[in-house]
Write a sequence for this structure.
């Protein structure tokens, strides 16, 4: 299974944009890039996913490098409620999610 | 629409005891999954199911069993509990397998002493 690499932790100020990076140099052509987040004491929550093109939804934006070996999750205006562990995951044709350790995002008021 | 529900929320087991973790979804999803999460770690897939009557192993299936007799239910069975199975267990479901997001339950915290 292809793996992802993320920073262990990041810090942001409230109401500022946050860019969460993810490297996935061994990604295959059919792997989808998924992002989930896990708030304290809760199950993971879907954020966004993409294959080749950049994607936007109400929660975030996903910027995918042209060679697909890296991607960036963008939170446009961080709030205190966005403090969570963010997981970048490659999802293969079998549909299984292989979680790494994720990036713990803290948001300062 | 309750989504994915799990029971119990918390349980303490003695070594060697058995128990079943319940998972139910009301979204008519074909795919269901069981994960475990150890402290400070990401989730690991235990078992998954692509439909009623069909199950398959994930990354860490040893010590667990599953069944899928209906679309809605996907129970996880621990036959002989061991301290290494102390973890938080999450059930999830999705309609399809590729490009579809998974919906997670609130988790079951299990302590084996």
């Amino acid at each position: 299974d292809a793996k992802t690499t993320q920073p262990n932790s990041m810090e942001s100020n409230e109401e500022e944009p946050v860019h969460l990076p993810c490297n996935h140099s061994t990604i295959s052509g059919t792997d989808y890039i998924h992002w989930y987040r896990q708030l304290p004491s809760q199950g993971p929550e879907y954020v966004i996913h993409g294959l080749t093109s950049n994607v936007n939804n109400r929660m975030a934006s996903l910027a995918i490098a042209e060679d697909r070996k890296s991607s960036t999750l963008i939170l446009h205006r961080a709030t205190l409620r966005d403090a969570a562990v963010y997981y970048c995951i490659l999802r293969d044709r079998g549909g299984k999610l292989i979680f790494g350790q994720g990036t713990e995002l803290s948001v300062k008021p | 629409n309750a989504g994915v529900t799990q029971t119990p929320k918390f349980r303490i087991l003695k070594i060697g005891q058995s128990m079943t973790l319940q998972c139910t979804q009301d979204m008519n999803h074909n795919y269901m999954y069981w994960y475990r999460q150890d402290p400070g770690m990401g989730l690991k897939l235990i078992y998954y199911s692509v439909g009623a009557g069909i199950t398959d192993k994930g990354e860490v299936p040893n010590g667990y069993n599953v069944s899928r007799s209906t679309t809605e239910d996907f129970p996880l069975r621990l036959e002989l509990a061991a301290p290494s199975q102390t973890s938080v267990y999450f059930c999830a479901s999705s309609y399809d397998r590729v490009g579809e997001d998974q919906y997670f339950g609130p988790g079951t915290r299990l302590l084996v002493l």
In short: Chain A touches chain B through 22 residues (CB under 8 Å).
